[in-house]
Amino acid sequence: MNVLKITGKYLDQPILINKFTKTVPAILAAGGALYCAKDIYNTPKDRRKKETARMIPTMALTVASALAAPKITNKIFKDSDEIPRTLKEIISDNKGAIGKFLSENKVSKEMEDLLEKAKTKILKHSEVKKLYKGIGENEEGKKLLAELIPDPENIDAKEIFSEIGRLSVFGLIPVLGGIAGGVIGDKLTTKDWKSKIPDKIKEGSYQYLANIFLCNIGAGGALAILEKLHIKSKSARALGMIAGIIATGVVGGSALANLIGEKVINPLLGQKHKDEKLFDERKPEPLDISLHTDDVATVAVMSGLKWIEPALPIMYSISGYRAGIGYRNGAKAEHQNNSQSETKLQTQA
User: Fold this and answer.
1) Do residues 182 and 200 lie in contact, with contact meaning Cβ atoms separated by under 8 Å?
2) S-S: 21 plus which of 26, 191, 239, 310, CB 3.0-4.6 Å?
3) What is the pLDDT of residues 52-70, one digit of tens each?
């Protein structure tokens, strides 16, 4: 096996995925706390108290909703027989499969030691390589390895849009949580909190449409076309999905999000038509482009890889938090807007 395939097998070890999944809440909470601390530290001392009161609900609800997203989407889209195995179940299954294999097949001492380790522990990258090289050439060895580290499954056309729906709901939940947290934070700190809601909704729609939903549609559409053409190559499918993401999300997503903001959201929120050009209100910027890393995760998930999915809450929470602060580029940061509003109110008083 080549390096990429070995790396994929190393990352797809069920024990590794299980343990990483358990660390995601701590990673996300710690990351959110560090970001808040940094932003509060950089805020002028006379505004730190209000900035803290505004930021904490925004970040807290973003993180909480991002962590709840997997459970909610699993209940909506997954059957009971697809519930992820617990660590205890994984170890029990490993012990049974390896015990049966060793009782029926003669292997070297090195391979036996690696298999004994694989029952309860995560194998190193080099150990995975040795194991596949040592027993992956015969049918019984291949069968065992497929049980220990299941091969990625290419989803068919019928499953494509179900998977798109699942990932789209997954990404929507942190965005809604971020908006809710942002509204609460504003209500606690500013008198004109209602005036900030439109920017949160428009930024949320931008983040969701440009950085999540349309990219999923692009990847799924490309995958459906490849399925119709009977193309089964994993590399071809991955490249096709990336092309679909670029065409719909990176290129067209921000334009559509701005159009919807101007033609639909603004009228619904009672805002006047500004006759803006398509990219005047919200332009793609470096962080938006970097957020498309989660689209690589989408490609991986649709390609049947399992190791990336536990990281999705971390990736989607960035979009959720940006929606929560109502970020709009071309304008000042939200805490600066708060300061201006407060100064205006003080002047009027």
Assistant:
1) yes
2) 310
3) 999 999 999 999 999 999 9
Q: What is the pTM of this model?
A: 0.79
- Whole-angstrom Cα distance, residue 346 to residue 342? 6
Q: Which two tokens stand for residue 74?
A: 């699993």
Which residues, 6 or more positions from 262, have their beta carbon under 8 angstroms from its beta carbon? 273, 274, 276, 281
Residue given tokens 């900030």 in the structure block: 196
Q: Residue 303 phi/psi, 5° resolution? A: -85, -5
Q: Which are the contacts of 52, defined by CB distance < 8 A and separation ≥ 6?
A: 36, 40
Q: What is the CA radius of gyration of the chain?
A: 24
Q: With a cut of 70, say whether residue 250 has pLDDT above it.
A: no
pLDDT single digits (tens) 91-138: 999 999 999 999 999 999 999 999 999 999 999 999 999 999 999 888
CB contact set of 280 (below 8 Å; sequence gap of 6+): 258, 330
Q: How many CB atoms lie within 10 A of CB 311?
A: 18
The residue to which tokens 């690589």 are assigned:
296
| Rounded to 5°, angle at Cα 106 from 102 and 112 | 55
Count of alpha carbons within 13 Å of 13, Cβ hemisphere only? 23
- In this structure, which amino acid lies at residue 300? A
Structure tokens at 112: 């036996």
Distance CA 53, CA 301 (A): 37
**Is the confidence at residue 274, as pLDDT, over 80?**
no
Model confidence at 325: pLDDT above 80:
yes
